[in-house]
């Protein structure tokens, strides 16, 4: 076989291999798009664990009729225009790959209306050349993305899907992560026509506590220390579980860097180190932590699924986190001991 240029669909399907692992990854990408569009309400409807249908509706800025086709093309993004933008990225998305990838492995319909348009329009990409077909539709300002029959044309991937229950559990976890990162956004999740989660906008601390209790348990929030520290432009806030909330699985560890959920080795190490000698080595601490740092100080462009970051001043970030958490933890433990004897 001589050298050939891949068809757009095949190129997108190959890219999809990296970002679209399962229904939950689709949900993650689409919700990130809704958040980037400034949505304050996001409704997620799932059928059959997401293998039959994923529908995400938001009240964000919408996409104009003229740009619907572009939104579905590869490397098309409204979020990054220059290298400088990439170095100070504030949005969740920036690769311009998600919609193109997802639409190459599903039947995707993108419906949207901007504030200034009088009517909504719907787009779907089909066939090898990913030609986009645009039709009038009914929709309020905002966007609705429907992803039906995920992996219908990539049987090998389709076979990798687990049971509806398992796939739905992954989606539920994605929703928890988002819900913990944006108290100012209402999120609803339904499965097979039944409302499963309804996270209301949390306008104050008690609202936040209610949401955290719903996601992490009441026991966690009742036994967590409120963290609030900053150093040299890095801000660390959130809730750190006292040793009594430690778990036998690492299933309650939420860490956000500039609003993005991360599983970063360096950060994990700093947190773990703060708990040294405070919890048994076979238990895992529970926490919800937020790190705010100048985007120029961190490179988020490391991994396609964006779980890893690179800090320019890694040592400094590590030590700041370790020291602040250790100090707060020590104080929290002393306070808890005091409370128990008085
Ligand atoms: P990226 O998020 O990396 O820019 P995507 O493929 O996810 O790439 O989306 C492509 C573009 O489509 C975005 O840059 C944005 O302009 C537009 N878009 C996608 N989803 C939405 C949405 N829910 N609301 C408004 N615009 C959207
Ligand atoms: Mg995106």
UniProtKB/TrEMBL annotation:
The keyword DNA damage is assigned to this record: yes
* Key words of the record: DNA damage, DNA repair, Endonuclease, Hydrolase, Nuclease
**What GO molecular function terms would the record report?**
endonuclease activity
Protein's UniProt keywords contain Chloroplast: no
The membrane-spanning stretches of this chain are none
The residues covered by the DNA mismatch repair protein S5 domain are 212-330
Function summary:
This protein is involved in the repair of mismatches in DNA. It is required for dam-dependent methyl-directed DNA mismatch repair. May act as a 'molecular matchmaker', a protein that promotes the formation of a stable complex between two or more DNA-binding proteins in an ATP-dependent manner without itself being part of a final effector complex.
Q: Which family does it belong to?
A: Belongs to the DNA mismatch repair MutL/HexB family.
Give the protein's recorded name.
DNA mismatch repair protein MutL
The taxonomy runs: Bacteria, Pseudomonadati, Pseudomonadota, Gammaproteobacteria, Alteromonadales
- State which stretch of the full-length protein is shown: 1 to 342 of 679
């Amino acid at each position: 076989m001589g050298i050939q240029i891949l068809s757009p669909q095949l190129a997108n399907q190959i890219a999809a291999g990296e970002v679209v692992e399962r229904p939950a990854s689709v949900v993650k990408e689409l919700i990130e798009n809704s958040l980037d569009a400034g949505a304050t309400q996001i409704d997620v409807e799932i059928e059959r664990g997401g293998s039959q249908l994923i529908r995400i509706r938001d009240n964000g800025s919408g996409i104009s009729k003229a740009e619907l086709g572009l939104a579905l093309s590869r490397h098309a993004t409204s979020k990054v225009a220059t290298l400088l933008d990439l170095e100070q990225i504030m949005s969740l998305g920036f690769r311009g790959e998600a919609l193109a990838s997802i639409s190459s492995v599903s039947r995707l319909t993108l419906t949207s209306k901007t504030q200034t348009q009088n009517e909504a329009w719907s787009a779907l990409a089909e066939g090898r050349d990913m030609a986009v077909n645009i039709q009038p539709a009914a929709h309020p300002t905002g966007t609705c993305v429907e992803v039906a029959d995920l992996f219908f044309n990539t049987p090998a991937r389709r076979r990798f899907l687990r049971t509806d229950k398992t796939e739905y559990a992954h989606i539920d976890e994605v929703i928890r992560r988002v819900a913990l990162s944006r108290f100012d956004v209402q999120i609803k999740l339904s499965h097979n026509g039944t409302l499963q989660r309804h996270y209301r906008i949390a306008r104050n601390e008690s609202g936040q506590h209610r949401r955290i209790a719903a996601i992490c348990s009441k026991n966690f929030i009742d036994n967590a220390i409120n963290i609030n520290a900053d150093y040299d432009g890095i801000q660390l806030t959130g809730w750190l579980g006292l040793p009594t909330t430690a778990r036998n699985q690492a299933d309650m560890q939420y860490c956000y860097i500039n609003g993005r959920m991360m599983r970063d080795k360096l950060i994990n190490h700093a947190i773990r180190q703060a708990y040294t000698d405070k919890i048994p080595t076979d238990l895992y601490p529970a926490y919800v932590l937020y790190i705010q740092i100048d985007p120029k100080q961190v490179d988020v462009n490391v991994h396609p699924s964006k779980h890893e970051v690179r800090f320019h001043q890694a040592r400094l970030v590590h030590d700041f986190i370790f020291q602040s958490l250790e100090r707060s933890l020590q104080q929290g433990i002393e306070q808890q001991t005091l409370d128990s004897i008085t």
